């Protein structure tokens, strides 16, 4: 017959192993990117992603679009864009749309980045996603690449990272050093509900890795059709080079956030995923 001491030891060991199976609850938090969101009068939002990636990235972009389209808040469609080298290098933002590009952007320290244009202090009016072939074309697997493009496009909808500790949350919106999660998880879809669904206002949604409380509301206009005036040089600002990203708001060595402020609530945010060097 097993004595009480050995039973207690076995029970404790089981508890330790069970806790090790799940990420720390301290990291299970809201991962909205500030209060930034696309303005809309109804859900789901019919947003377009302009495809300016080369053929080796087409399948990965298709997968990322299909993954995020599973959210009931999004109705995504791909729009064919130019994949010329000059277009991909510049990757200009287009009003009311997200623009995805890949290119050899140089050994400048970053794997991928997302940029969002904010009007009225909170509303996303256009966005870009860039993936850097200077690093990603060598030494990175297809899974790694899928993780990067999935994450950068997720930022375009107003999502931050679920975690930046290096823990593996089984989502492309974590910063696992392995970059081995090519898809969103349930917590990411919950977060989109918390940001965009008025029916979830004040409601807390919880998964094993994530928790958020709804703040969603409808707006009086749609970001993809709005013709609201913008300051000179804002919509077409050249934010390709790092010196044009503005002030560094944060940098933990894995990711960084830059903001270029045009005044009166008009800002361009650049969310950077650094390469492991």
What does this structure look like?
The model is unreliable at 1-27 (pLDDT under 50). The chain has a domain at 35-163 and 220-274: 3-Layer(aba) Sandwich (Collagenase (Catalytic Domain)), CATH 3.40.390. It has 6 helices and 11 strands. α2 (55-69) links the parallel β2 (48-52) and β3 (77-80). The relative contact order is 0.18. It is α/β, with parallel strands linked by helices and 277 residues long.
What is the quaternary state of this protein?
Answer: single chain
- The amount of beta strand, in percent, is 15-25%
Overall residue-averaged pLDDT value: 89
Shape: globular
Total strands: 11
CATH topology description of the domain at 35-163 and 220-274: Collagenase (Catalytic Domain)
Number of helices: 6
> Termini distance?
56 Å
CATH architecture annotation of the domain at 35-163 and 220-274: 3-Layer(aba) Sandwich
List the secondary-structure elements in sequence, H or E. HEEHEHEEEHHHEEEEE
Largest sheet: 9 strands, mixed
Poorly predicted runs are: 1-27
Calculate Rg over CA atoms: 20 Å
The CATH C-level class name of the domain at 35-163 and 220-274: Alpha Beta
Class based on secondary structure composition and strand pairing:
alpha/beta
């Amino acid at each position: 017959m097993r004595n009480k001491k050995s039973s207690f030891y076995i029970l404790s060991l089981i508890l330790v192993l069970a806790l090790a199976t799940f990420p720390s609850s301290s990291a299970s938090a809201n991962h909205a990117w500030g209060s930034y969101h696309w303005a809309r009068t109804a859900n789901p939002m019919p947003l377009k992603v302009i495809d300016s990636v080369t053929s080796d990235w087409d399948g990965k972009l298709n997968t990322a679009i299909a993954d995020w389209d599973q959210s009931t808040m999004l109705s995504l469609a791909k729009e064919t864009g130019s994949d010329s080298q000059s277009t991909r290098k510049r990757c200009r933002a287009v009003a009311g749309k997200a623009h995805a590009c890949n290119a050899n952007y140089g050994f400048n320290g970053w794997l991928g980045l997302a940029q969002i244009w904010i009007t009225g202090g909170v509303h996303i009016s256009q966005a870009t996603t860039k993936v850097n072939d200077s690093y990603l074309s060598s030494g990175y697997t297809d899974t790694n690449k899928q993780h990067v493009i999935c994450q950068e496009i997720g930022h375009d909808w107003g999502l931050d990272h679920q975690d930046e500790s290096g823990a593996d949350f089984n989502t492309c919106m974590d910063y696992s050093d392995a970059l081995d999660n090519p898809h969103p998880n349930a917590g990411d879809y919950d977060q989109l509900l918390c940001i965009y669904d008025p029916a979830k206002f004040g409601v807390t949604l919880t998964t094993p890795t994530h928790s958020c409380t709804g703040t969603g509301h409808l707006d009086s206009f749609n970001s993809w059709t709005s013709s609201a005036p913008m300051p000179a040089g804002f919509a077409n600002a050249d934010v390709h080079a790092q010196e044009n990203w503005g002030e560094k708001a944060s940098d933990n060595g894995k990711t960084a956030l830059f903001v270029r402020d045009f005044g009166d609530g008009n800002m361009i945010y650049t969310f950077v995923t650094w390469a492991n060097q």
